[in-house]
Amino acid sequence: MTRPERPPLHRFRPVERVRPPVVRAAVWLWITVAVVQLASSVLALTEARELVADLTARVAQEFPAETAVMRERVAVAVLALLIGAGVLLALLELGCAIALNRGQRWARVVLVVLAGAVVAHAVIAVGGLRSVFLVGLVAASGIAVVAVVVSFLPAARVWFGGGEKR
Fold first, then answer.
1. How far apart are CA 15 and CA 5, in angstroms?
2. Which of 116, 117, 119 has the alpha carbon at shortest distance from 138?
3. Which partner from 3, 131, 132, 147 sits 20 to 30 angstroms from 125, CA to CA?
């Protein structure tokens, strides 16, 4: 007696999740924020001498008893800190945008914190420095706020495992 042939078993194929357009838009907005912030920070370096002179004058106003060398060191340190923070924020935004694109729920929370940092960085940099290139930081902070709002829209909940869209 021969056994009847069984049809081959089909392996389960994972269901491919479809990325909602709002998530795609949020990712591109975050990439835009990172590029604008990075470009603004790097372009501010082209005016480094003027920015250091401006900061040195401000330090001299606030701390008249300090030596000229100390004033200049403080000005260079503040400028390096502001530009370095801009570059670091841009790199963190890019990394979190990649995670956001992959559906990592934690990326949205980290990007909310980064949006706050971007806004604070823009306020500090524009308030302390006089450079036309720093207007990009203000634009980046506005785009970051929009990107946070877009990434928390109801259509994005399914992508991040927050339940079905209602």
1. 29
2. 119
3. 147
